[in-house]
Amino acid sequence: MSDEPTDLYNNYFDPFQSQYQYGDFRHNPGSYISFTDCLQGSIDYNSLERAVGLSPSSCEVLPPVDGSAGTVVSDHAREIIGGLTSDSNNPVTQNSSISSYSEDGTEEDSCKNKREIQAKDGDEGGETSSKQNKPKKRGEKIQREPRFAFMTKSEVDHLEDGYRWRKYGQKAVKNSPYPRSYYRCTTHKCTVKKRVERSFQDPSIVITTYEDQHNHPIPATLRGSSSSAGQMFASSMPIHTSPAAAGHGQSFSHQLLLQMHTRPLHHPGSGGRGMGSTCPLTQTSSRQQQFHEQYPDYGLLQDMVPSICFKQEP
DNA sequence: CGTTTTTGACCCGCGC
DNA sequence: GCGCGGGTCAAAAACG
């Protein structure tokens, strides 16, 4: 559908081009880290620093206009996109690309996360037979699941990623004509959720936020239809390979999906459902904390490590 | 008939 | 205290 851009290098989508800046990506060619590294938790901050040009704690970040900490991630994502799309030089009008944000909340908890966790606890322990009115212990630090938000240029809302999802809700998004859809992985005991919404400023952009990680492989039935898993990225992102993925002889998209969803959890053992510990970026939490301290009002990225932009090595 | 989607109701935290 | 917004539930409908 979307034409494959021939110049991937110039086509990558820098979400921080206008509003958020993490050093100068473009002036550090070859210093990109692969997103798979990030997802795997194998990312080391030396790489990150190289990639972004500076350390997270010294990133040049323009705080969001709206400093509300409790606002939902996607709202901020939208803000970012807003900044992006309002930039006439921005390549959003070019062919697709994808950006990602990872979110690792070890700090503040937003209401939604509390609720999500409550729901999970309820599912698991089966102790909350009543819907959703079992408040967690107050004051208890609640760990947030790792989250990854993707901004994808795509015509379809629900991007096929190889897993089976069941829609469990849809809500109108404030200030946006496009609703937000909530999906849950249908695999038994898999707690992965994702939210899908369209940018109201650039309807061609779909924001997909994954939460938690799959503890199972891609369903065989879907893997068979080879197209499905790769479709999402094949059609929505121009980057076919990252250095890391290329090294494995797999398309980046596939690699990304596999690593993202099937990366073995360091297992739980500690801490309930292993929420905090399964976050691929948890190991870097101290650095993140630094970052958070420096940018307490950092909106969307408040709980995320700096965005990783993908591009193909020249 | 099993699975998925739709959709209104509900819960909760936060800001005013 | 109240209203708002985000997130989830669950019954009914739709689908294959």
Automatic annotation (TrEMBL):
Major location category of this protein: nucleus
Keyword Electron transport attached: no
PROSITE patterns to which the protein is assigned, alphabetical: WRKY
Biological source species: Trapa incisa
Localisation per UniProt entry: Nucleus
UniProtKB keywords: DNA-binding, Nucleus, Transcription, Transcription regulation
Biased composition, class Basic and acidic residues, residue ranges: 109-123
Gene Ontology molecular function: DNA-binding transcription factor activity; sequence-specific DNA binding
SMART domains, sorted: WRKY (SM00774)
InterPro entries in UniProt: WRKY_dom (IPR003657), WRKY_dom_sf (IPR036576), WRKY_plant (IPR044810)
Region listing for Disordered, in residue ranges: 82-147
Domain of life: Eukaryota
Pfam families reported in the protein's UniProt record: WRKY
Protein's UniProt name: WRKY domain-containing protein
GO CC aspect terms: nucleus
Residues of the WRKY domain: 154-219
Biased composition (Polar residues): 85-103
